[in-house]
């Protein structure tokens, strides 16, 4: 004697799965869950395979797959792992954007930003690392365009690119907004362009490339003298000034002018912001110490 296959009404499927009748009827109307039979009154009936199919539909929908993707899986036109991988990629991007939005909102609360600043922060924070890198590249392209500068030195300068983590802090978002505003500020661009022109005009980039590593030591010593209340004209200040002159090969007046022209708090701020964005160690403020050195050279 042949066994009779068990069938279920939509109401029974709803009780067994916990899904609303309206949802099951919707899946059936969309062709995802076709009825296996109908009653004499025309009501839809479903068998045990339909029950298993409904459970699969629910799982796929809970994972966030759209109806079209669910239909592809049910029709075996795509595998679950393939669609899951594609959906995971989209979900990761959505999570990244939500984290950025959260960081922007935290920065807005911290800064008590007005509407225009909020719009700017949101626009800049939504940029990709590639877009940020292009912004920096365009900046340096314009700073050295048509100039015979030392390629190694400027290659090093432009190699650093801002790269926010997937879950940036409000401070990193603020740093990026300030950085983007800085490199687009006409006065800052004029400052860096002027430095580049003087660098190209001197043609001595290589000489100072060799002494760049000593600057940390010189500025730290100058800062120590400054903190101790020593005047640039003190014996310590004059000894340090003489050391710089010997290393540079320039006279005191020319060296003081060269250092002074390159000593700007905004240029230093460029690297401090870059460090915040990229999670580097903090860049100390050397601007007052370098001013002290210039005064020592001119004393």
UniProtKB/TrEMBL annotation:
Keywords, in A-Z order: DNA-binding
Domain HTH merR-type: 7-76
A Pfam family assignment: MerR_1
SMART domains for the chain: HTH_MERR
Alphabetical list of PROSITE patterns matching this protein: HTH_MERR_2
Source superkingdom: Bacteria
InterPro entries cross-referenced by the UniProt entry: DNA-bd_dom_put_sf, MerR-type_HTH_dom, MerR_fam
Example of a GO MF term: DNA-binding transcription factor activity
Name recorded for this polypeptide: MerR family transcriptional regulator
Record lineage: Bacteria, Bacillati, Actinomycetota, Actinomycetes, Pseudonocardiales
